[in-house]
Design goal:
The protein is an alpha/beta fold and 407 residues long. It contains eleven helices and 13 strands. A six-stranded mixed beta sheet has the order 7-9-10-12-11-13, covered by helices on one side. Helix 4 links the parallel strand 3 and strand 4. Helix 8 packs parallel to helix 9. The two termini are 62 Å apart. The structure holds adenosine-5'-diphosphate and magnesium ion (MG). Adenosine-5'-diphosphate (ADP) binds next to helix 9 and helix 11. Magnesium ion (MG) binds next to helix 9.
């Protein structure tokens, strides 16, 4: 805080408006204040002071006789509309004399003016100067509060902006991941086509490759229409989806020494987005394969779930277990595996697979649970996904995820 008045004179925010219409009062006051380096402007009327108060002002000095009830209303309007940080200082030079009915009336009149300091005339010059200095110091604190509020607003705005960018970044990364999988599949299929002797298999692989390319086109379209139109869901046969994923991974699983055991019970078809459901199982099977680099067993079980009598029909659907005999998930990692960018695979992992998978399950009003063991005697991980056979359309766009960690 400044001790003298030098700081105030150099800054127009501390300009003092003086309204003293009778005689030479305004000139005298201005000269006195300028002598102590305060920046002053004489106004001929309250109206002219009100007009000037739209520019930054430190304080206003008003002679009481300049205040008619209408002018009090004008001034009060400006005071009422000041910003939350401001408490405008008004110094009123009162008419000298004893307390009378008219002086009481005048004091009632000036009530709406807020932060009013009364100085009774005749005023000693030192009293006026020190009152003004105090008023300007108070004003300085108000300006500091204003600047802090502005800085806070700017910081919040910057945070919102960076959050927006982070979401855009996550989306871009996730789309890259989504597109990468079908491309990887096409590469696998081209390899199979090149090495296969059987014409029927070649045809089948070519059909799968064309499906995968359709998926890329679908993702691109989906990205472009992200906020506009959802792609319509269809009835999906989950065992079919899993088999098509297994076909893509066949070579990879075989070369890692992983055997596959499938057990498919009768299960209802699920209303959903076929491409996304394929993505979901491709992520789970891909992770299982990553965890069994030294070989192992991948068990996939599909079973139908019927709703209990009288229960919510959405309890009916399909449960899929994807179980591997791989490394297992360390207990300290288990809570984090659904977070975006969480990966224990270094440069080879994006950490987006389970995050994307959970959002696909959520979109289908389903739930996903994980159970894992790192004990060398019996290591492994089981992902259990439940997808209801039916769900109301809005759930396919937005729904509540039930991500549960068991064991
Ligand atoms: N079947 C599994 N066995 C062991 N660890 C797994 C398994 N599935 C997922 N994880 C762990 O969860 C992490 C996140 O998986 P994910 O989101 O698919 O990302 P990424 O595969 O790119 O690492 C993996 O890095 C791994 O540590
Ligand atoms: Mg993964």
């Amino acid at each position: 805080m400044q001790g003298g008045t030098e700081h105030f004179i150099s800054n127009p925010e501390y300009r003092i408006l003086v309204v003293a219409p009778s005689g030479r009062d305004a000139d005298l006051i201005c000269r006195l204040l300028e002598d102590v380096n305060l920046h002053c402007a004489a106004c001929t009327s309250v109206e002219s002071a009100c007009a000037q108060m739209s520019a930054p002002t430190g304080a206003v000095i008003v002679a009481e006789e300049a205040l008619s009830p209408e002018r009090v209303v004008r001034l009060a309007e400006i005071i009422d509309h000041q910003p939350s940080w401001s408490d405008f200082p008004l110094i009123l030079l009162t008419i000298p004399g004893v307390v009378s009915a008219s002086s009481v009336q005048r004091s009632l009149l000036r009530r709406p003016l807020g932060n009013v300091l009364l100085l009774e005339r005749p005023i000693r010059p030192e009293t006026l100067v020190s009152t003004l200095q105090n008023a300007l110091r108070a004003r300085q604190r108000q300006y500091q509060l204003r600047d802090q509020m502005l800085q806070q607003q700017q910081a919040e705005q910057a945070l919102r902006q960076s959050e927006k960018l982070a979401v855009a970044g996550r989306l871009a990364a996730s789309i890259t991941h989504e597109i990468n999988n079908p491309l990887e599949a096409v590469t696998n299929l081209l390899y199979l086509i090149e090495t296969s002797q059987d014409l029927n298999s070649v045809k089948e692989y070519a059909r799968l490759a064309s499906d995968e390319l359709k998926r890329v086109a679908e993702i691109t379209a989906h990205t472009l229409n992200f906020h506009r139109q959802p792609i319509n869901p269809v009835m999906v046969d989950i065992p079919d989806v899993i088999d098509s994923v297994l076909t893509l991974y066949r070579q990879r699983l075989k070369s890692a020494g992983i055997s596959v055991e499938r057990e498919y019970d009768r299960a209802p078809r699920v209303l959903g987005m076929s491409g996304e459901l394929r993505q979901l199982f491709a992520n789970l099977i891909g992770n299982a394969a990553d965890a069994m680099r030294m070989g192992g067993v991948l068990k996939i079980r599909v079973k139908g779930v019927s709703a209990r009598t009288g229960a919510n029909p959405r309890e009916a659907g399909v449960r899929v277990l994807v179980a591997d005999s791989g490394s297992g998930i360390a207990p300290q990692h288990k809570k984090r595996i659904f977070e975006p960018f969480f990966s224990t695979k270094g440069n080879t992992g994006t950490g987006l697979g389970l995050w994307v998978s959970a959002s696909i399950v959520e979109k289908h009003s389903g739930s996903v649970q994980v159970r894992s063991c790192t004990n060398p005697q019996n290591p492994g991980t089981v992902f259990s996904v439940f997808l209801p056979a039916e769900q109301s359309q809005p759930h396919l766009v937005q729904g509540a995820v039930a991500k549960e960690q068991i064991a």
